[in-house]
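Quick note —
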Amino acid sequence: MTKSQRLLVLMLLGWLVGCAAAEPGWQRLWENDWTRHGDGSTWVLGVEADGREVDAGARGVELRVTLTNLGPEPAEVRLDGPGEPLAWKLGPGEQRPVREVLRNGVHRFASSPGVVLAGPRLGRALENPRLVVVILVDTLRDDHVNADLMPGVTRFFADGRRWTDAVANAPWTLPSVASFFAAEPVLELTSPGGEIVGLPKGTATWGTRLHEAGFEGGAAVANITVHAHNGYAGGFSEYLLPESLDIGEAPDGAWVVAEGRRWLAEHEGEDAFLYLHLMDPHAPYRKHTDPDFVPPDLNPLIDRSREPTPDEAILLPELYAGEVRHVDELLTPFLDELPDSAVVVLTADHGEGLGEHGAWGHGLNLYREALRVPLLLRAPSLPSGGTVDGPVQLVDVGPTVLDLAGVPADEHATGRSLLRGGSPGPVVSATFGSGPLRWAWRQGSDKVVLRTAPQAGLGAESRTRFGEKKPFPSGIFHFDLARDPAEDDPGALPDRISAEAGAAFADTAGRLVPGLQLMLWDGSGPAEAALELGGEVEVVQAWSTSPVSVSRIEGRFELRCDDAAALCAVSLEPESVGETVSIAGALPGWRDVAPGAVVDPRTVPLPAELGGGFQLWWNPPRSIVVGGYEETLQRLKALGYVD
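Predicted structure written out below.
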């Protein structure tokens, strides 16, 4: 080999080494061993530190990890390898971000018990990292996101897109956030008994999809009920919560924003996503300019045990508006610091009643003020500016964020990207927050609200129910939003949409409970039905806008709704029905099933549409398992949310 050839080879080798050294990217260390570790307020994905080995096989490779001491005692961590050893001391509960360029060779951790390496990774900073920031402001009404109350937020999103008619899929936090995270309707995530306190185990979310695509995820959540215990931390390598369970002690949004800033700085040069959940507009309403101010107790108004005084009716909306201004003051500088390349969304889990329809707070009604939420989005790939006026739902926001981040959404999820038309079906919202089911259907300018009546002794009643001393009247109510946008003038259900709304109820609430389903929709009472069943009948759930009576005489089952019944639905326990059902008769008559027919109940499908008369169908068994159920109930009770 000539001298010039040797020189060329050396130059080529140097070029290859330089390319290898400059190649950016991140490799997660020991990812197959990652598990969730936490102490109640700090939850991280990672591995226990002691004995872990890092092989830095190239020059200039950087180790990034958050050392987290979850033990009750001070801890020490040491990293031995080529060069000088590295050592850190951590107090109880302390977190310490590490960014160290390692020498070539093998490095080994040694640590005290209880130290976790959160999100350990090895690599080099990306030149054009992707960033997704999702901000959820708990209890924020859409009509308060304006240039007067939130000038900084509205200015930031002026070059983005705003949906002016975004609807939450539930009027309180746990079901709404579960639906938002999973891109699934609330009732798909609800147990047959009406419980929904979190995400079922194994549920894919937009967070887990981003994590699988190589993004590192962090969250600071001021609402302690949105906890890692009940499934909300999926995909996040760091998930921070407040420590206190006392009512009124949710941390100020300043804590949330500060933790968000810290996390972004620690993940500079990485594909990353950040979730911030602020609680400031949520009751109890505070005066942030007056630390000695004692917030008024809103609970007697929320549970409708009394009417507000004239002074309260003026003060409470003013306090709520002040909370919204405070959120804008916190978020404006944070938003302005974000890179132009970031995908940023701001929304809420539900709204807040401020006296409209005699309702205060949230969780108990499905009026506009409880369901209308802000939805603002900014991303470099979005056309500049513009608003969208048609109704959309929160279940579609996650797939939209994934779409803008270049990450495929779960093709089996109900939610669809709003940039591709969103979900094809109508908007459905539901709550068990007050015991009996409440359900709303929205299509165009038509809105139908269905409030069922309590049915003593017939079926489950959610243990997560809110107290309500003066319930809203049961029934089916139609609102023409083109004529009555404030929903002040309810009317009867029009014939033109009765079949569509009934089919939507059957396809959502009607799928919830396993077993044989009997349903009268849009009938005129009294309604009666009689079946001959092969076993001893057990009613596991009954929903009706009027009182339901049930009688059982040997194998004969009789159902009666005494009032004029727009809805009467009963679910029979699968094991009690038997192998055959004989239709003895019904008033005003069965639809698609002839009187006297003998059928195998497991062969009767959900009807494609619902007109007048009785319907019959079979639901297969379904199981919803949510972790942290008892812990979540304790938190809800400690915060005063439930009885």
